[in-house]
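User: Hi! I'm working on a homework problem where we have to compare a predicted structure to a textbook description. Could you give me the structure for the chain below?
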Amino acid sequence: MTKPSFMETEHGTRIAYHRTKGAGPGVVFLGGFMSDMEGSKALALEEQARREGRAFVRFDYQGHGQSSGKFADGTIGLWLKDALAVIDRLTTGPQILVGSSMGGWIALLAAKARRARVKALVGIAAAPDFTLWHWDALTEAERNTILTEGRLLVPSDYGPDPYVFTRALFEDGWRNRVNHGPIHLDIPVRLIQGTADPDVPWQTAMSIADNLTGEDVEVVLVPAGDHRLSRDVDLKRLRRVVGTLAEEI
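Assistant: Happy to help. Predicted structure tokens:
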């Protein structure tokens, strides 16, 4: 693992990142909840970018990976600020945003905020508004814990550290919900979704597609695909989807 570069943001995050210089359109990878930029999908896209001479950036949000701050202090709005700082300061020209899980939510918000720059979007098990689902799935006792103590620890299937769900995360998630009505984006969007994803129902991808107002929207359902979609065949598919979009822009 090579050492990252760092960028200080105006809102206080010291962002760790890796940037590959090259031609446009560039690609920016946005990771998921409690994930980091060292995952197989980010690295596969970086390798593709180097091979094709394309600009690419992967980074860690606040409280993730090698960036500053505590995870429990993060919210969707803050992580969106991190993503926008990366787009504004580390990229030039048209960009393709690739968002995994929570990164799909961040990508949709960032695309709306930077319409002149973001020319395409790829969601991998995109999970916009996932805090709303989690709140609805909590027991009354768990909700009371969040309301009174400010946080709830939930075991994770993806690592030794438990998920940390805070009251601020839920409240901020409500303010930043995006898949509750028309999503006004007129750019190519590709949504890759496993049908056996235990965390994001495949119907979520269909809901996003239905809400997007643009005409160039495709949903790629992966039979028996899980949440990570990190098998060799999954990474090959991801590279193909991103490569085709880059050629068309």
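For your comparison, note the following. The radius of gyration is 17 Å. The longest helix spans residues 232-248. Good luck with the assignment!
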